[in-house]
Amino acid sequence: MVTREPYLMPDSERIVLEALRTVLPEHRCAVYLPTDWQLALRKTGGLVIARRVGGVMKDKRFIDEGMFVVQTYATSRADASLLARRARAGLVRLTFEQWGNAEGHLSRFREATGPFMTTDPMTEAQTGFYRFSGNYMIATRPR
Questions:
Q1: From CA 140, how far away is CA 12, in angstroms rounded?
Q2: 9 CB contacts (<8 Å, ≥6 apart)?
Q3: Average pLDDT over all residues of the chain
Q4: 105-142 as b/e: b if 16+ CB within 10 A
Q5: Which contiguous run of DSSP H or E holds residue 124?
Q6: Tens-place pLDDT, residues 15-27
Q7: If residue 138 lies in a helix (H) or strand (E), which one and from where to where?
Q8: Are 66 and 52 in contact (CB under 8 A)?
Q9: What whole-number distance in Å separates Cα of residue 90 and Cα of residue 78?
Q10: Which has the least CB within 10 A, 1, 14, 38, 66?
């Protein structure tokens, strides 16, 4: 018989990524920008990158609150903005619904910074590509 470690929190990055894939099935969602990002972006019309960048265990047995950066890429500013807002809205809705997977459930959503257009040397060097970023505190809990 396998017993679950009582203080083992679920993989919140996996939960958030699968939640995004649920609400944005037509787009490629990943933790890191794929090496073929330009091709993937043209094929799907948008990319969503969601990565945990920090956070804390809020309750030693039930709640883990992660800080997530969610970035969206598209070939127009309007499309990147819409994709970012759809990603945010989907996470809010699924959190409200307490959506879950085999790892655990979404529990709470709090916005640190809403979607905003951002650039870096990579995106500045590529004309016709736009990126929006948002930072969210997303709490998860075990199954």
A1: 6
A2: 57, 64, 104, 140, 142
A3: 92
A4: bbbebeeeeebeeeeeeebeeeeebbbbbbbbbbbbbb
A5: helix 121-125
A6: 999 999 999 999 9
A7: strand 130-142
A8: yes
A9: 18
A10: 1
